[in-house]
TrEMBL record:
UniProt source species: Aureitalea marina
One GO molecular-function entry: glutamine-fructose-6-phosphate transaminase (isomerizing) activity
Function: Catalyzes the first step in hexosamine metabolism, converting fructose-6P into glucosamine-6P using glutamine as a nitrogen source.
Keywords linked to the UniProt accession: Aminotransferase, Cytoplasm, Glutamine amidotransferase, Repeat, Transferase
E.C. numbers: 2.6.1.16
Domain SIS positions: 43-182, 215-356
Oligomeric and partner information: Homodimer.
Name listed for the protein in its UniProt record: Glutamine--fructose-6-phosphate aminotransferase [isomerizing]
Compartment annotation: Cytoplasm
Organismal lineage: Bacteria, Pseudomonadati, Bacteroidota, Flavobacteriia, Flavobacteriales
GO biological processes: amino sugar biosynthetic process; carbohydrate metabolic process; fructose 6-phosphate metabolic process; protein N-linked glycosylation; UDP-N-acetylglucosamine metabolic process
Substrates-to-products reaction catalysed: D-fructose 6-phosphate + L-glutamine = D-glucosamine 6-phosphate + L-glutamate
C-alpha cells in the first residue's frame, strides 16, 4: 500500500507530479486558453462582485491560503484576507452577504474550519470549499467548491494536499483575473502553459533528493532552524518550518526574510542553520543581502536556488536546486526540497515519520 516506499510521507511526496496533473486534468486547457472549474463557473459573479475574499483554514492549508493571497491580489486584484479558522470563528468578524469565503481543508473535517464556515453562512456570505476528501463535512457545508485530486493522504504531515491546493487556487485566481480583465493575455497564457508543466518541474526538483539527504545528515542534530522567504515564498518558509517541527520535533521558525532584522537575527550564530528560499524573483537582490547578513553572523546557510544560480551558490554553505519557473508558481517547486529535508532529518532521528507524536490526521476537536 506504500507503493514500495518506506513511508506514506515519502510516497506522497513522490506522488506530487501525478496528483498535480490529476488536479488540473480536464480543468486546464492550456492550448485553448481555458480554465474550467465547474463549481466556479456557476458562481463567478459572486467572486467578481465581492469586496474581498476571506480565506479560512488551519495549519498547512492556511499556508496554501497565504500563497493564494499573493496570486489573487496580483492577478485578480481582489483584496484577500487569510484567517486562522480558530481565530475567525471566535471574533466578531465583519462579514456580510457580499462576502466570499474560501475554506481550505484536506480532510474536510477540521472542526474550527467547519465552525468558521457555519458562522460565515449565518451572516449570508457565499462559501467556497477547496477540499480533498469527497463528501466530507466541509464539502457538504460549503455552497460550492473545487476538489483537489490528491488521493488519500495518509501521512499526518501534509505534503501533496498542499501542492494540489495551490494548484486549484492558482486556477481560480487565473480564471477570475481573466473574467475581470486584470491580467494581460500574454501573462494569462504563459501561466496556463507553465502550470501544465509543473508536474515536470516537480519531478526535476525531486531529483535533488540524494543531495538533500546529505544536507539532512549534516544538520540533523541542530536544536533550532530558521526558515526565510519573501513574497510568494514567505508562506513556503512557514510551511517548511512546520514540516520540520511536526515530524522531527526540532524547533523551527519561519519568517519573512526582511523581518529577520527586527528580532530573530539575535538568534543567529554558528549553531544556527538558516534555510533561505532564494530563487529568481523580484526580491532576489534583497534576499541576497539577507543571506549576507546571516553570513556576517556565522549562520549556516542552506539555500533553495534556481538551477544555474551563481550568486547565492557562492554565499551559501549548501544549496538545493529547483527548476526555473514564473515567480507566482515557484511555491509549487520550492516546497519540494523542504518536504524532503524534513523527511530525511526525521528519519535519521528515528522519528515516527507518518505518525508524529501528539498529532492526528484530522483535527475534529477544537
Ligand atoms: C500539517 C498538517 C496540519 C493540517 C491542519 C489542517 O502537516 O497536517 O497542520 O494541515 O490540521 O487540516 P485540514 O487541511 O485537513 O483541514
Amino acid at each position: 500500500e506504500k507503493g514500495g516506499y518506506e513511508h506514506f510521507m515519502l510516497k506522497e511526496i513522490y506522488e506530487q507530479p501525478q496528483v498535480i496533473k490529476d488536479t488540473y486534468r480536464g480543468r486546464l486547457l492550456a492550448d485553448q486558453g481555458i480554465i474550467k472549474l465547474g463549481g466556479l463557473e456557476d458562481h463567478i459573479h459572486r467572486f467578481i462582485n465581492a469586496p474581498r475574499v476571506t480565506i479560512v483554514a488551519c495549519g498547512t492549508s492556511w499556508h496554501a491560503g497565504l500563497v493564494a493571497e499573493y496570486i489573487f491580489e496580483d492577478w485578480a486584484r481582489i483584496p484577500v484576507e487569510v484567517e486562522y479558522a480558530s481565530e475567525f470563528r471566535y471574533r466578531n468578524p465583519v462579514i456580510s452577504e457580499k462576502d466570499v469565503i474560501i475554506a481550505i481543508s484536506q480532510s474536510g473535517e477540521t472542526a474550527d474550519t467547519l465552525a468558521a464556515i457555519k458562522l460565515a453562512k449565518q451572516r449570508g456570505a457565499f462559501v467556497y470549499g477547496v477540499c480533498n476528501v469527497v463528501g466530507s463535512s466541509i464539502s457538504r457545508e460549503t455552497d460550492s467548491g473545487s476538489y483537489t485530486h490528491a488521493g488519500p493522504e495518509i501521512g499526518v504531515a501534509s505534503t501533496k494536499a498542499f501542492t494540489t491546493q495551490i494548484t486549484v487556487l492558482t486556477m481560480i485566481a487565473l480564471r477570475l483575473a481573466q473574467a475581470k480583465g486584470t491580467i494581460s493575455t500574454r501573462d494569462y497564457m504563459l501561466h496556463l502553459r507553465e502550470l501544465e508543466l509543473v508536474p515536470t518541474y516537480v519531478s526535476e526538483a525531486l531529483e535533488g533528493d540524494g543531495k538533500i539527504q546529505e544536507i539532512a545528515n549534516v544538520f540533523k542534530d541542530a536544536a533550532n532552524f530558521l526558515y526565510l522567504g519573501r513574497g510568494y515564498n514567505f508562506p513556503v518558509a512557514l510551511e517548511g518550518a512546520l514540516k520540520l517541527k511536526e515530524i522531527s520535533y526540532i524547533h523551527a521558525e519561519g519568517y519573512p526574510a526582511a523581518e529577520m532584522k527586527h528580532g530573530p537575527i539575535a538568534l543567529i550564530d554558528e549553531q544556527m542553520p538558516v534555510v533561505v528560499i532564494a530563487v529568481n524573483s523580484n526580491h532576489y537582490e534583497k534576499v541576497v543581502s539577507n543571506i549576507e547578513e546571516i553570513k556576517a553572523r556565522k549562520g549556516k546557510i542552506i539555500a533553495v536556488v534556481t538551477e544555474g544560480d551563481t550568486t547565492v551558490k557562492e554565499l551559501a554553505d549548501y544549496i538545493m536546486e529547483v527548476p526555473q519557473i514564473p515567480e507566482a508558481l515557484t511555491p509549487l517547486v520550492t516546497t519540494i526540497p523542504l518536504q524532503l529535508l524534513s523527511y530525511h532529518i526525521a528519519l535519521m532521528l528515528g522519528r515516527n515519520v507518518d505518525q508524529p507524536r501528539n498529532l492526528a490526521k484530522s483535527v475534529t476537536v477544537e
